[in-house]
Write a structure and sequence with these properties.
Belongs to the ABC transporter superfamily. This is ABC transporter. The structure is a single chain. This protein is α/β, with parallel strands linked by helices and about 240 residues long. The protein contains 8 helices and 10 strands. The protein starts with 5 loop residues before the first strand and ends with a helix. Bound molecules: adenosine-5'-triphosphate.
């Protein structure tokens, strides 16, 4: 796992048509291997914009992103060491969850006999549901299947944009366990959320954003201990 999983320096982004408002402003932080980093902040804080820049989907106005030491730019090939979940993955409804993942995996040119494929399914923890047709899935189950899809191949860095959105409380608990299992082997997870309660138990580190800027960053225990006032205001946002 050579290289620092993620280092961003002075990242800024202003959308076209937005005159004075930066979606992300002078953001810098670093994520070490084995960390589960929670990117936390109210709606509009700039979490999704940040993650889309990390994935190379949109171009920052300023700043630098290094993933395992490689500079990330839109249009450049996405590193195979990075997996990402964003909402809205499409599945074939008449096929089982497993068959959907197998066809996705086959399309990447790798065999389903790959040990990584089996291990990823194990970590995702979908159990028997994998054998059912996707059309029978709840919205939450579809979401969990999309998260499992992002894990196939066991990328060294897994990026999850609001994976708990739309999940019920038991599914949210399971999601926490999935993230912890995923990172247990020294892999790195970045997960965004607008609720501290959803991430504090699974995240080793937090980066709290508000109005595009970093408010505070550090180990979860330090932040939840020292900044309760701050976090209350973030959650109210
Ligand atoms: P949420 O939890 O609602 O997804 P977020 O923290 O992910 O919020 P972003 O989606 O990154 O925040 O949005 C940051 C700011 O950028 C907001 O003010 C938003 O309105 C604005 N914004 C986001 N996407 C676009 C876009 N495509 N065009 C213009 N403005 C945008």
């Amino acid at each position: 796992l050579a290289g620092v999983p993620l280092q961003i320096t002075g990242l800024s982004k202003k959308y076209q048509g937005s005159v004075d408002r930066y979606a992300v402003r002078e953001l810098s932080f670093r994520v070490e291997a084995g960390q589960v980093l929670g990117l936390l902040g109210p709606n509009g804080a700039g979490k999704t914009t940040t993650l889309r820049m990390l994935m190379g989907l949109i171009r920052p106005d300023e700043g630098e992103i290094r993933v395992f030491g490689h500079a990330i730019r839109p249009g450049a090939p996405v590193l195979s060491r990075v997996g990402a979940f964003v909402e809205g993955a499409g599945f074939l409804p008449h096929l089982s969850g497993r068959a959907n993942l197998e066809s996705y995996w086959a399309a990447t040119g790798r065999p389903v006999e790959d040990a990584h494929f089996a291990e990823a399914l194990e970590i995702a923890g979908l159990g028997e549901a994998l054998e059912r047709a996707v059309r029978t899935y709840s919205q939450g189950m579809r979401q969990r299947l999309a998260i499992a899809q992002a894990m196939l191949g066991l990328p060294d860095l897994l990026i999850l944009d609001e994976p708990t959105n739309g999940l019920d409380p038991p599914q949210i608990r399971e999601m926490r366990e999935v993230m912890v299992r995923y990172a247990a082997a020294g892999r790195t997870v970045i997960v965004s959320s607008h609720l501290l309660a959803e991430v504090e138990q699974s995240c080793t580190h937090l980066v709290v954003m508000e109005r595009g800027r970093l408010v505070v960053a550090g180990p979860t225990a330090e932040i939840t201990g020292a900044g309760e006032q701050l976090l209350v205001s973030v959650e109210d946002g």
